[in-house]
Amino acid sequence: MYRSPNCNNVYPYTPYRPMFTRHLNAVGSSWFPPTQALLGRWRSPYPLHPSWWREQPPWHLQSYSSRHSLANLKTVAPRSGWWRQAIPGLTNGYQRGLHLSCGLMDSADREPPHKRRRSPGEGRTEQKSWHAPDRSSSRQTQSSKGSPDSRLWNGPPHPASPGKITSPRKTQRPTEIKRQWEDFSHLYKHRDQPFDFSVMSYNILAQDLLQNNAYLYKHCQSSVLDWNHRFPNILKELEQHDADILCLQEVQEDHYQKQLKPSLESLGYHCEYKRRTGRKPDGCAVSFKRDRFSLITCHPVEYFRRGVPLLDRDNVGLVLLLRPAGSSDPAHGLCVANTHLLYNPRRGDIKLTQLAMLLAEISHVSRLQDGSSCPVILCGDFNSVPWSPLYSFIRENRLEYEGMPIGKVSGQEETPRGQRLLTVPIWPQSVGVSQQCQYEHVPGRAAEVKGTALCPSERNNGEEAFAAFSNMSRASIVHSLRLTSAYSHRLKANGRPEITTCHSKTAITVDYIFYSAAQGDVGQPECSAAPEAGLQLLARLALVDERDMWTANGLPNEHNSSDHLPLLVRFRLQP
Fold it and tell me: How far is residue 132's CA from residue 548's CA, in Å, rounded to a whole number?
């Protein structure tokens, strides 16, 4: 048996202890019963700091943090580890009579390290609810404009705080995600006969995609992943919120034709659908209340281009031109677009090209005869985080991309290293879309007027704007739409990042509702002198942060049947 060279030293005058491999017998008093435990693998003569020993036990249980008090530890027998048997009756008074050297301690001034807990999905086919960590103070990736937390994480949560420990053998029923309405209607002047309406954007998670990516949902019980459980929940959400316009992504075609479309039509909706190319199982859908809007035109957008390597993916978009009920003036139209861009975080070049093609279609559809544009609502899953280059391009109308790694475009990766840079230009001329995100040399698509200012407060003259387009850098792309986000991407109460999607690998924002803000709108960008015609943001259904998301066991869960939360806003159409 190995013994410490300092085995004659006695605690507390020196931090060194002898090593034991035999039973330790302790004789207690009337308040402390006799104890016998088998101690093994105690071999290292590293010192145990007395100050730590007075507050914490000298071992490191697998399921608990070393910072938990003895009162909270009680009598738990770990499934594996150095301790083979629980020590009953352990109290704070006993720690003064147990003299052991901790083999995990490598320094007298360092706290014992945490051991990695087993991932919720390892070795089990079903995992009940569990507590996620508070990572609000963790390292965040931020741009100069305050990029939200977009880190990816693979491990399970750390233990709960002292006093709130839950045994790993017990489970707690997850709480329901609570969302509140944020009302801005009091900020606007009252007008006669306003046309107010609501819009929802929702990635409902196609069942085929769920099954093909089952590793993302190890934290879920198998029952909540079944389509027979999910569809009634999704339909219940749609009925409950009763939005006038629905923009849905990841809509599986067979489910759409057999279940979703008939259900929505029975609720008074008109439905349009575009499946992804390449015989993919899902696509995008746009539905609207027949008593609130009428359809003028519908324009599906396919991003696939045969013979163009950059556009060999099967994502799609859908653009509708609607007329509000009771209006016969074509100038009172509303352009609604819905899309789901490529996921791959390392292919920002493809994402920007897909977005440029969608913006070209929106510019074409929303253009009025007098050269102006009707208000635009752009919804979807953009697979990009707030304040990323792609997000900034939508809101700021311009992107200087020279020297930018393709993996940095969407902001999904913290360190996009070893990647090639965006080419100049990003997409070839054969795509038929200019660097101003307008159609050119395409039959049936007239080249758009390039006389819209990038920022009206700086460029409010059509000729000046055209000169700005003509003289811009070759490594720049621009668009003529004035769009802002209906959400602020940080919670008003605590400043934490809002979350729209959450599963075993990530919890970030990738879903958005962009819109043409009218003059005086609360979401209007500072540099934008918006026109009087446009949309006013009346209210929005607030999102939650990551901590609140995991109190409900992440997504999907018993009440929320997608790995995304729906976005829901109310607008007023300002003529």
Answer: 9
Burial class (CB in 10 A: 0-12, 13-18, 19+), 569: buried
Task: Please provide the size of the chain in residues.
Answer: 575
Residue-wise DSSP of 133-190: P--TTS-----TT-PPP--B--S-PPPPPTT----TT---PPPPPP--EEE-GGGS--
Is the backbone peptide bond immediately before 47 cis, with ω within 30 degrees of 0? Answer: no
E-strand ranges in 333-450 read: 334-340, 376-381, 398-400
Counting Cα atoms < 13 Å in the Cβ hemisphere of 344 gives 13
Mean pLDDT, to the nearest integer, of 89-113?
Answer: 43
Residue with tokens 């259900």: 263
pLDDT value for 504: 92
Question: Which of the residue ranges 148-152, 234-238, 344-348 would you say has the lowest mean pLDDT?
Answer: 148-152
| 526 band by pLDDT with thresholds 50, 70 and 90 | low
> Residue 467's pLDDT is what?
47
Alpha helices of 242-347 — where are they, by DSSP H? 253-255, 261-266
Cα dihedral angle (232, 235, 240, 241), rounded to 10 degrees?
A: 150
The CB-side HSE value for 48 (13 A sphere, CA atoms) comes to: 27
Q: Tell the burial category of 488 from Cβ atoms under 10 Å away from its Cβ (0-12, 13-18, 19+).
A: middle
Q: How far apart are CA 445 and CA 339, in angstroms?
A: 21
Is 431:350 a contact under the CB 8 Å cutoff? no
* Residue 215, φ and ψ in degrees, nearest 5: -65, -20
Where do the domains of the chain lie, and which CATH numbers do they carry?
1-117 (no CATH), 195-574 (3.60.10.10)
**CA distances (Å), origin 381, targets 40, 129, 159, 573:** 54, 27, 33, 24
CB atoms within 10 A of CB 145: 11
Q: Which two tokens stand for residue 505?
A: 């690998």
Neighbours of 270 (CB within 10 A): 17
